[in-house]
Amino acid sequence: MDLTKVGSILTVAVGLVSRPSPFSISRRKRCMTSFSVSSEKRMEYSRKSSSKSVSQVQAQATEAMAEPAYTIPAFRQRSAEGTEEYQRVSGNVEKGLTIIQEELKRMRVSTKATVDSLNIQREVKSMMAKRPDFLDDIPKMPDFLVALRPHTVWEKTPVKLFCTVQGNPRPIVKWYKGGVPVDPLSAPGKYKIENMYGVHSLIISRCVVSDTAEYSAVATNPHGTATSKAMIVVKRPAGAGELCHLGLVPHLTEIHASKLEVTLLDRFPVSFGVEDGSISLVCGMVVVPDLPNVPPLAQWYRDDKLLKPGKLVQMSVGGGAARLTLPQLAKDDEGLYTLRIFTKDGTAEHSAYLFVSDAPASKPGAPGAPMSVKAYDINSDYVLVAWKPPNTVNEPPITGYYVDRFDVAKDTWVQCNDSPVKICKYPVHGLSVGHSYHFRVRAVNSAGIGRPSRMSDKVTALDAAESERLQGTEEGYVTLPGEPTDVHASEIYKSFVVLSWKPPSPRGRAPLWYVIEKCLAGTGAWQRINTAVKLCSPRYPVYDLQDGAKYQFRVYSVNTYGSSEASEPSEPVQKVDEDGTEVPVGVPSAPGKVVATRNTKSSVFVQWETPKSLKNLMGYYIDGRVVGSKEWFPCNNKPFKHNRFVVHRLIPGETYVFRVQAVNVFGLSEESQESSPISVEPALATPSAPFGITQLSSDGSSITIAWKKPKHTGGSKIKAYYIDRRNADTLVWKEVNMQGVAERVCTIDNLTDGTFYEFKVQAANMAGVGVASAPSMPMKCEAWTMEEPGPAYDLSFSEVRSHSLVLLWKAPVYTGAGAVSGYLVDMAKKGSSDFVTLTEEAVSHRYLKVKDLVEGESYVFRVRAVNSKGVGKPSQVSEPVCARALPGTKEIVAGVDEETGDVFLSLEACEICDTSQFIWSKNYKPIGDCPRVAVTTKGRTSRLTFTNPDKDDLGKYSVVVTDTEGVSSSHTLTEDALNTMLELSYAIRHPIVPLKHGLNYEILEKGHVRFWLQAVKLSPSVSYRFVVNDKEVTSGEGHKISHDVATGIIQMTVESFTRANEGTYTVQITDGKAKTQSSLVLVGDVFKVALKEAEFQRKEHIRKQGPHFSEYLYFTVTEDCTVMLACKVANVKKETTFHWYKEDDEIVPETPPNVLSGACSLPIPLFSRKDQGIFKATLSDDRGKDTSVFDISGQVFDDIINALAKNAGASASDLVLQCTPEGIRLQCYMNYYTEEMKTVWKHKESKIASSEKMRIGGTAEMAWMQICDPSDKEKGHYSIEISDGVKTHTRTFDLSGQAYTDAYEEYLRLKAAAFAEKNRGRVVGGLPDVVTIMEEKSLSLTCTVWGEPTPEVSWFKNDQEVASTEHTKVTFDGGKFASLVINKVTPDDSGKYSINVRNKYGGEFVEITVSVYRHGEQIPESKMGHAKTPAATPAATPAATPVPPKSPAPPSKTPTPTPQKSQTPMSMKSPTPASTPASTPVPKSPTPTPKSPTPSRGVKSPTPPRFMKSPTPPRK
């Protein structure tokens, strides 16, 4: 780019931002008498700023061209043999360097001019914010304002081609190389095509020789095509291919990052994050030259401290942006972030604040996390941890902190302090030497423990002097260490004191530790304080010091050789002074006056006076609060060091107050006084430039123009507009109006017909005159004679939402040959010229609601007026509008005032400022002063109230809030909605007393009747009356009338309710303006029911005067299935008697009833059908008698059985299998069983009926079903179902497979055992236990035996069989009677005799003791005892043989043992017969004669058979 091109760009810029004449300025000053001198100076400066900026640009361009020449560096001296070759090579190099130097200079000048040109365009663009393209209405083919220029570059260097093109519609530019389209995707990274700020560019990153070609840019639109061409020549340095191997060519193409030209574009704003979240700060930039391998040198700072890349901070530069990413936010990251990029001209910087708020607390009210945790004073076993306290706004105050340490070697967190430390420092003692640690802190308050802080940087517990000791040489011969020196308190706080001293010198190479002693100052009574701790560091925290006492300390050095002398005592130390406050400092005093001032639309500038007592201040916390709210919110979450702060993210238009607290190591100070309330508004400034100047009409001597108001009013209302004009072919501007114009339409007179004019407009407010608008398009002053109407103007938008908006416009000034009959609306997407007509027919009104928009898409509109002659000129194209609602947008609400009953429409604005006004319209026509409505505004809410609403008020109402970003809304008032609100309004203006419950009645005790109703609310001044059958009833005899304001109840009690009370009851209520009444008709059957109930209650009252049943008889079933008849009694005394009866027969229970307990009961155990009948309970004394009857029959009996079945079914055990000699039995144990229960036995889902084959029965403890003489047909699934009327309880057993086989075998065994037991040999009776006889007498032992077949009988004496002799005779008569006769017994016959009776099925063994005494001796007393149990001797096995039945005949059935409740069938054991016979009573006769078949002794209890194990667990 040469100076000619640069000059052309500057000329364009000067044309756009030209300077007004001194004459115009002076006239404007004379006219604006209402503005201050400062406003005039601001106006003058704004009008001169344009020419100054152009001068600065020219000066920068001149300076850029004065680059210093490049000098060849001096090379080192070379040897003689290389000099000649070097001279030849250096000559070629010098030529190449000269060429490169010239090219680099030319590139610098061109790139400098390019960047300056872009800056000029951006400055002009910002001054002309969103200036519409006035050429949109004039079709124009493409034209290159700045054409391509040729370039010659070296290989491996970048090159950039750029051009500027204009046309209408906007042309599309395509790039070609040698006639072939350039495709960036064909060589990724090589080509880059850009279109920024109207400049089209093609960048080739690293040129090669093959890139030499003719490049062209082809611009195309519907009206034509334009082409600009330029040649690029890529050169290779002379001899580069042959000289590189010599290594003699210096590296000339290297460019240092600081030599790049960097311009910052998209800058990161003030940002907000949350703990544990992530955020990226990105700043866009333009780099010239843009070299991929040489990125700019960028540095990031937080609060002026350089950041370094790491795990918590990630940085990157490239791709046209510098990025800082914080992947895991903590409050430590809050602060002012600065990006500093080194450029050729110095540095480019940008700063913005990052706020990091607390993450949600683990418990409500718990404090936030502390921050800035650091470890100081690091020693071998001691560090001092310090941190900053968190802000507490609405949480309870912090009571202390817990410090945690993380040993890297152990990978665990350990809490260091048992009780919270109250200051923001803590000495951590007892660390392991050489271990690395992290530390974190948690705050504590009354609500709980807060989140932990970010952990500190890693520190290693090492003594700095330890390495010196190990490396020392002179100290190598030292044994005893020297004494420590400089003993003092380095940290003094109320909770602890840290002692510090200097290690001894010399100290020796032996490991060293310390002993500390303390004493009260001046006493000399030294006491060791670290007895349990081996102290290796010259630091030690002391905790147990008394408040107010002064102490002295001294230290000994100790090693393996011994101890040093004591150090010099420290100065006296006390941890609290005489006033009881912290030493040396406490919390700071509160900051002084807080002042808040305007800053921006959403921020406020807060500053305050520093505290009088700073006391090592860490910073400040700023809190804010919305006026009217009690909740404070934190403005910053990390202490801010300065006494001024900008509070961001506030609601525009809202009013706030602020307070400040100072922070130091002891915590937070008291809050400062609150600031004065301040509304969030931008700081006062001059308005921005108007825009959109359009021509509305012309008559040959004047032109009427209109314009749009500035986008920013500068914080105050715009008072006037000033217009300047000039001939299009001159540069001199002339003022049009001496006095400001209030409207945005103006007619400029005294113009020359046929001349082109340009206009510009300035807006003025109380701060002064703002910048001028961009010059309008040239407008020709000639009379308009077309028959069609002129353009509509002042297109604006309202009610912009995600999918709709309302477009409004004003009617054209020039109407043509006829009145305007309607309008056509066209729409196009932003950047497109393809307009679509939205209205099929012209609309008569000047607004249109556009629907079906795409959220986030931007659109433009234009309007064409229509009259009878045709369609007129289109309006100027509107500003682009994005289909997206403002955050917090609210709609109009229709309602009725609860107090006055007024019908209203109301809108609460989401955004407002001091100059904002609510403009209400009906059908988009401003309402203004209208007697039908009244508009009131309070704060952010405006209300439109209808004075006398009717059908004339129906329509569409809208409201626009001025000086905002488009706050607006609309509401259509329909006839139905209006009627509903009118009804509600009438109810409010003519109120009634609302009732919760209408008039009703209830029967009270004694037979009284209470009539009552309940109102929603009653005032103390309420009045009312009761009317019965058209007669007012007053409170008096027989009637009691009252009310309760708190509950809203009004009541009347009729004490004697009789047939005369039949009729209609009415209550009439008056409460202020409100009235109501409620009636109750009590006649006919309804009255009879009420009367009957009243009489019953009256009798009940009389009954209850004596002893009575408060609850009549009822039944319950206990856990053990006992049926209890129960009742409750009342009004009893000691003399009251209670009796039970069944069928008039008195029942006397074991436990007499206790009426004084209030309850009586009659147990009916083992309930069954026999217990049916009528039960009666009577209660009587001298005051009267009461009776309760309970009929147990019918449904009551069924209910009792069902209740028993419910209990029994719930307690039922699983089915248990038991074998008997008769068959296989299934048993179900339960709490109680009776045959009246509905129980069903099933086999394979078929019901079983009781028969000879299948016997069904039960006892009180179980139900059973027995299969007699089982066969394979009886295999299968068995179940019992117990029904309680609601639920069926089922228990099952699978009698098949191995279970059936085992059961069947057991059945056969028991059957055989029973047969054997029935037929075995046994002694039926007749033998005594003990026989005493005198010598010379005869002894006869005779008994009856039985067995089938006939048993064999043997007698024994002292275990020796007795043979039949003359002295001892043994007989066995008829197979039934066995006897042993001893003739003339002698003492030798004394002994133990026994009889053994047996056959093939078994037998029995019975013993008898015989004592013989001499003549003259005293007869020995017989020892009476129980009958002996004979020992059974089975035939085949040693197992016990069952006892015979009571008669000698074989029994038909074998009894089945019943297990006890505490023992299940599986756990029962068969009783084992005694091995020796037990004693039996001695019979009266020495020769017993059995008269009964039942044996009196020696009878064995039947042996229970083995039980089959059930697969299910036994019942509990």
What's the gist of this structure?
With 1516 residues, the chain is mainly β.
Main traits of this protein?
39% strand, 5-stranded mixed β-sheet, 1516 residues, 10 helices, disordered C terminus, extended, disordered N terminus, 6-stranded mixed β-sheet, mainly beta
Radius of gyration: 58 Å
Total helix count?
10
Specify the helix fraction band.
10-25%
Query: How many strands, which pairing sense, and closed or not: the largest β-sheet?
Result: 6 strands, mixed
Distance N to C terminus? 106 Å
Quickly give the structural class.
mainly beta
Mean pLDDT: 81
What is the overall silhouette? extended
- Unreliable segments of 5+ consecutive residues: 1-78, 130-136, 240-254, 472-476, 1424-1429, 1435-1516
- DSSP strand count: 98
The fraction of residues in strands falls at: 35-45%
Commentary on this structure:
This protein is mainly beta and 1516 residues long. The strands form 24 sheets. Strands 90, 92, 93, 96, 97 and 98 form a six-stranded mixed sheet that branches. The chain has a five-stranded mixed sheet with strand order 2-9-8-4-5, with no helix packed on it. The model is unreliable at 1-78, 130-136, 240-254, 472-476, 1424-1429 and 1435-1516 (pLDDT under 50). The protein starts with a helix and ends in an 82-residue tail after the last strand. The radius of gyration is 58 Å and the shape is extended. Helices cover 12% and strands 39% of the residues. The longest helix is centred in the first third of the chain and has 48 residues, at 80-127. It is built from ten helices and 98 strands.
